[in-house]
Every structure is written in structure tokens, then in C-alpha cells.
Amino acid sequence: MAVARVTEIISGSPKSFKDAIEAGIERANKTLKHVEGAWIKDQSIILDDGKIKEYRVNMHVTFIVED
User: Fold this and answer.
1) pTM value?
2) Which of 3, 27, 28, 40 is most buried by a 10 A CB count?
């Protein structure tokens, strides 16, 4: 039987929400083993003088815990 764990990651990108998600997953894969999925909990934007400066995502990443 496998045991999973969930960690919360906040990632940002000046391009798009999709790019922020991909950057967060890429970074999670560098640190965590056996990443199985992610749930995008929240999306937000950072503004600078009324223009979008950064797209941010708050995600829960699920990974399998090794024995």
C-alpha cells in the first residue's frame, strides 16, 4: 500500500498562469520524488501601476512517500 503526502507550493511567472504552474511542477520534481499530481488551489495576479506584473498560483502537490 502506498502512502501519499501533500505539500503546498506558490509559484509565479511574468508570462501566464500556465507558465507559473509549469514552473512550480518543474521545481517540485527537482526536490520531491514520485510526484503524482497537483491541485490548483488559487490563482492571483500582482499589479504594478495597473498592469499585470506577475501571475501566481497556489497549488497542492501530491507525491508518494517512500518506505
Assistant:
1) 0.88
2) 28
Q: Which residues contact 26 (CB under 8 A, 6 or more apart)?
A: none
Spatial contact of 5 and 36, defined as CB atoms under 8 Å apart: no
CATH of domain 3-65: 3.30.1660.10
Give me 33's grid cell.
520524488
Nearest 10 degrees: Cα torsion 54, 31, 5, 40: 20
Phi, psi at residue 14, to the nearest 5°? -80, -10
Query: 1-54: per-residue pLDDT in tens?
Result: 789 999 999 999 999 999 999 999 999 999 999 999 999 999 999 999 999 999
